[in-house]
Design brief:
The protein has about 260 residues and is an alpha/beta fold. It folds into two domains: about 5-205, Alpha-Beta Complex (2-enoyl-CoA Hydratase, Chain A, domain 1); about 205-255, Orthogonal Bundle (Lyase 2-enoyl-coa Hydratase, Chain  A, domain 2), CATH 1.10.12. Helices cover about 45% and strands about 15% of the residues. The chain has eleven helices and nine strands. The strands form two sheets. Strands 1-2-3-4-6-9 form a six-stranded mixed sheet, with helices on both faces. It has a three-stranded mixed sheet with strand order 5-7-8. The mean pLDDT is about 95.
Length: about 260
């Protein structure tokens, strides 16, 4: 399967739908697939006002493709697996954080390892009842990567995140929904439809303001109140200069639905 075939791209109106497409490996992440995903996300960020990240087959992603092996010589005592993260995983996670459009992740089946990280990067996370999240790095003597230590601790708290990462046990979607990691819990057959419906609603919104909301929310995870107030002041200035703001005010006083253009 070529690099381009490992990631599918579809455009429906203002919504870009991206599929991880290596079902035989349960969408395990290789350097090639990851780079294809980065390129596809870059395209979507230029063409769409909302993005859905889904998958083909019975899994969202089984995590890193260990069978691919990479170029690391395991016989070297000074081997550096951290260097591998700089080649693709870390740039991918940063790109997902900095997208100019809202991201909806559609999770069916396992989302393991870095696949869990990618799933958790969604602004809205839709999971099927048969889905589960897994951090099994401890079983091979490694630490979670792809931002999982940060994402899980921030989303569900240090203690619950510790349990998942230290024991390496499955985290069922229903429990993840109860703990606040998952936004919507639906039947497995309804995951993609629900994610697209949410993305269509987001795509009809004030695109610039939604991008600023994303920026503010990510900043809030590591910010103090004074810094956050300063950021909100700057973002509100910029949002208030948009055409969508003028349209929103006009629609409010006209008692009609706003027709946002993303400008």
């Amino acid at each position: 399967m070529t690099e381009a075939q490992q990631v599918e791209y579809e455009k429906r109106g203002d919504v870009a739908i991206i599929y991880l497409n290596d079902p035989d490996s349960l969408n395990a992440i290789t350097l090639e697939l990851g780079n294809a995903l980065i390129a596809t996300l870059d395209r979507a960020s230029k063409e769409a006002r909302a993005i859905v990240l889904s998958s083909r087959g019975r899994a969202f992603s089984s995590g890193a493709n260990l069978a691919a092996g990479g170029n690391e010589d395991l016989a070297k005592p000074d081997r550096d697996l951290g260097e591998q993260l700089d080649k693709m995983y870390n740039p991918l996670i940063r790109m997902l954080r900095d997208l100019p459009a809202p991201l909806v992740t559609a999770v069916r089946g396992p989302a393991a390892g870095v696949g869990c990280s990618i799933a958790c990067m969604g602004d809205i996370i839709v999971a099927g009842k048969g889905a589960y999240f897994l951090q099994a790095f401890c079983n091979i003597g490694l630490v979670p990567d792809g931002g999982s230590t940060y994402l899980l601790a921030k989303a569900i708290g240090r203690v619950r995140a510790m349990e998942l990462m230290l024991l390496g046990e499955r985290y069922p979607a229903e429990r993840a929904f109860q703990d606040g990691l998952v936004t919507r819990l639906v039947d497995d057959d309804d995951v993609e439809r629900t994610a697209i419906e949410i993305a269509e609603k987001l795509a009809a919104g004030p695109t610039q303001a939604l991008a600023m909301i994303r920026k503010a929310a990510w900043a809030a995870l590591d910010s103090n109140l004074d810094d956050q107030l300063d950021l909100e002041r700057t973002l509100q200035r910029d949002a208030g200069r948009s055409d969508d703001f003028l349209e929103g005010v006009a629609a409010f006083f006209g008692k009609r639905k706003a027709q946002f253009k993303g400008k």
